[in-house]
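### Sample
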Amino acid sequence: MLHYALAAFDACSEFAQTVLVLAPDDDHFDGRRFGTLRFAVRRCGGPSRHASVLGGLQALTEFGAQDSDWVLVHDAARPGITPALIRALVEALRDDPVGGILALPVADTLKREQAPAEKGGLAAVQTTESRDGLWQAQTPQMFRLGMLRQALEDALASGAEVTDEASAIERIGLTPKLVRGSLRNFKVTYPEDFALAEAFLGATRPA
């Protein structure tokens, strides 16, 4: 999965640097398995996505990135990302004052659950929620480095929980744009998702 994600960014010569953020105690990663792909490894991951992204931003700064530079944050658990999707995001946002994210309009009917009567019991539907105007966030998410760092540090200082970079940007009063993504860029979350990822990607590792 990681190879597919890194290969998509490697194919985009527009980027000056790609940083792979790992946990300090990660003993599974073997860079020799990734051939000639261009990326740097930094073991600056934290206990949350929030902390890991901040560590990655600091690493980019050490590579010479400036606050005014664009940075794209991507989940390694989304191996379906493609160079075409990355370039579509960059092209749509390159002149935007804020930035934005890949996302898809919600197509499914949404149900809010009622707490189960007892532990381990089945959840019940409390109500049906309107899906009008709702989008499912994906990655990459693209913002200026300094703006994103400020937003994440502000959320951290306030004890606010942010589940993606866009929500941190929203907290400081800014409005990220929505750029249409793709179903193939889904997040591998459940065991059965691996078979779905293989169906999208095929069994052959990208060159």
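The chain has one domain: 2-201. This sample (2-C-methyl-D-erythritol 4-phosphate cytidylyltransferase) is used throughout the tutorial notebook.
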